[in-house]
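Chapter summary example: a protein plus flavin-adenine dinucleotide.
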Amino acid sequence: MPDHYTLCGIFFSALIALVALYNFVFARKSHIVSSAASPQCMNSITTASGECRSPDSSGEVDVIIVGAGVAGSALAHTLGKDGRRVHVIERDLSEPDRIVGELLQPGGYLKLIELGLEDCVKEIDAQQVFGYALYKDGENTRLPYPLEKFHSDVSGRSFHNGRFIQRMREKAASLPNVHLKEGTVTSLLEENGTIKGVHYKTKDGQEFSAYAPLTIVCDGCFSNLRRSLCNPKVDVPSCFVGLILENCELPYANHGHVILADPSPILFYPISSTEIRCLVDVPGQKVPSVSNGEMSKYLKTVVAPQVPSELYEAFIAAVDKGNIRTMPNRSMPAAPYPTPGALLMGDAFNMRHPLTGGGMTVALSDIVVLRNLLKPLRDLNDSHTLCKYLESFYTLRKPVAATINTLAGALYKVFSASPDKARSEMRQACFDYLSLGGVFSEGPISLLSGLNPRPLSLVLHFFAVAIYGVGRLLIPFPSPNRAWIGARLISSASGIIFPIIKAEGVRQMFFPATVPAYYRTPPSKQE
Ligand SMILES: Cc1cc2nc3c(=O)[nH]c(=O)nc-3n(C[C@H](O)[C@H](O)[C@H](O)COP(=O)(O)OP(=O)(O)OC[C@H]3O[C@@H](n4cnc5c(N)ncnc54)[C@H](O)[C@@H]3O)c2cc1C
């Protein structure tokens, strides 16, 4: 008896040929509209700067931001530019040295432009990224970002995460109304269900309290503060092992490289003019020990033979050099408890597998949504009304965020090796489908790059891959065994994508306009 995910899969597969044709035509039209609109967005930011400052607000500070990573520092600059008095509390203001957040998708770069932060990728030896190269079993295919309709400056950017963050922190701190302070927030201050501020400790052990009508928590993937603000269901499907390759060239310059390796993908991309980041995915929550040499052995014996020959020597040299870092890959759907006086942003709020490099794009896109919602508000002091109004944030962000999140989770499963014949057929079908070029690569890469993150397009391409896989099995010589594998392929594809969509929220993702919060108007306008 087929389960309900399988039935949904069969339904989608049956509809797909018809709808896909319509969708491709529609996608092209809307793509042109959105690209033409982007320069206007840039202008509106410049002219609106400083508009929202409440001249008669009672407190010293309008907004407290906890954490000045990617989300916190971009948000501090954005709200500061809109005239808010912002107090940022960051645990460590020195330059971070991490293996996360190093490739910003072009969709994220467009958001950076919208926020007026595009100069933060300048002077840090950031590299332009123009697309991906996908490798499987000795074959490879190039998947360029569809950038033709954008300004020549628009592309992905890859860099040292710490350098990017420092640039954003400096830019935020250059505003007179933004105050950055080093300290660790230890708790949120709550009164009758409303968050009034935070309690924090400085490095020399002094303790302070800070108060503001709105506290935005951006304390990242290991957040200690999110517990009271959301229902965190964190999944850790794998870990990334990070290395830096030197003195070598990528086979495709200025491209991300994804190797569909066994047991799971390996990534390469430039992070400066002389360094290439390699991230090796290791399934599960435990990685071989770095200290006792197991990791080096694993990288040399299991991973190295699957690395493109052009990178092999540099890979071995990087392993021998020994600067091996690891990081858990977490995913967590957004499940907020709307709380007066507080909001979560960035990884503290929502995470997805980093395979597709979507985290910073989602964080920056969320900041644009929030900024637009807050802009007309003069006063943030009525926490309950503000909280009700900001419920629309959770719906307005969904189509973009959920598309990027779902793609990341689904692609990670499809790109990982499996002993199941149906899963390995799906993996091969995905590689071959993307290799077809034209709309078959442009659609998925538009989703991944954040240039056109539309939920329906995601579902259609996902099932188009599944149908393509079934077609390859049945044409030209169908057999009962091949038909059975095809049926299991559809079932397995459904079992991958529908649970992720369910966790994201079907209604908010596909029908946001039916959610009442979508239409909330700013409280000041209601008055
Ligand atoms: C291995 C890996 C690779 C990734 N690669 C990419 C990629 O290529 N592209 C991409 O877009 N995304 C990538 N991501 C995701 C991306 O890194 C995150 O989405 C992004 O960094 C989220 O920004 P954030 O501001 O929420 O968190 P962070 O950038 O982690 O910032 C959190 C900040 O809060 C501070 N902080 C924490 N606790 C406290 C406290 N109690 N008090 C005060 N301050 C505090 C921290 O010091 C830190 O500065 C990757 C993730 C992983 C795990």
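Key point: The pocket of flavin-adenine dinucleotide is lined by residues 66-72, 89-92, 99-104, 184-185, 218-221, 224, 240, 327, 329, 346-348, 354, 357-361, 363 (CB under 6 Å).
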